[in-house]
Amino acid sequence: MLKKIKNGVWGLLNSVGLGGTVQLHVGGALKQYGWFKSFHSKQSVDLNGDPLPWYTYPFILFLKPRLKPEFMVFEYGSGNSTRWYAARVKQITAVENDRDWIKLISPKLPANASIIERPLGDEYIRAVATTGQLYSIIVVDGRNRVKCASFAVDYLAHDGVLILDNSEREWYQRAKDLLKEKGFRRLDFIGMAPIVGIETCTSVFYRDGNCLGI
């Protein structure tokens, strides 16, 4: 797979005479971000083996310095992202439908992170409403993403933002349209992500005066 990634990028660069120069930078960036380690371990981790969200690297680099210790975060879907947020914010709550996955990830979570188990369907979509909390960040990265985004937006704090991962997928277009109708603007971060060798997109939806300072 790595050979295909390199050939695809460097073939274009070679055609314009830049391949020899840029090749070192591309390979260096993959190593620096820990992509090789994530690919071989099949886990979303950085160079040191520490957890990373399964977002595009450009968005991780954008988001990390903007997180604040008072933030409250809600996730649809759980995993290494839950651990990553927990190390940087006040509290994170995730909803998950896979009981076996919950058993696997729960022992790795610190005290300020929790997982709500809900079956797929309305209970899963509405889980964000059961906490009695408004959130700085809501991450839509699980199942039923269009319905989750549409429902969860009402549980953002006044300065809250919503993150939609893999937003390039055509079947998530309705979610993007709904959020635009609700007055949100969108910023797309396209690039590679841990583990896989394909280009994807992570989008953040925001309004004026948002908590990330966009």
List keywords for this structure.
214 residues; Rossmann fold; 7-stranded mixed β-sheet; disordered N terminus
Give an overview of the whole structure.
It is built from 9 helices and 7 strands, in the order ααααβαβαβαβαβαββ. The protein is of the alpha/beta class and 214 residues long. α1 packs antiparallel against α2 and α8 runs parallel beside α9 (173-181). Helix content is 36%, strand content 22%. It folds into 2 domains: 2-33, no CATH class; 57-206, Vaccinia Virus protein VP39 (Rossmann fold, 3-Layer(aba) Sandwich). Residues 1-25 have low confidence and may be disordered. A 7-stranded mixed beta sheet has the order 3-2-1-4-5-7-6, sandwiched between helices.
Q: Which SSEs are present, and which pair or pack?
A:
Elements: H1 2-15, H2 19-33, H3 35-41, H4 57-63, E1 72-76, H5 80-86, E2 91-96, H6 99-105, E3 113-117, H7 122-125, E4 135-140, H8 145-152, E5 156-165, H9 173-181, E6 185-192, E7 199-206
Parallel strand pairs: 1-2, 1-4, 2-3, 4-5
Antiparallel strand pairs: 5-7, 6-7
GO biological process, one term: methylation
Protein name: FkbM family methyltransferase
Keywords: Methyltransferase, Transferase
Helix content: 25-40%
Order of helices and strands: HHHHEHEHEHEHEHEE
Strand content: 15-25%
- Can you summarize the main beta sheet? 7 strands, mixed
User: Shape from CA axes?
Assistant: globular
Instruction: Look up the CATH topology of the largest domain.
Output: Rossmann fold
Gyration radius, in Å: 18 Å
End-to-end distance, in Å? 35 Å
- Tell me, what is the CATH class of the largest domain? Alpha Beta
CATH architecture of the largest domain: 3-Layer(aba) Sandwich
How many individual β-strands? 7
Protein name: FkbM family methyltransferase
GO molecular function: methyltransferase activity
Keywords: Methyltransferase, Transferase
GO biological process, one term: methylation
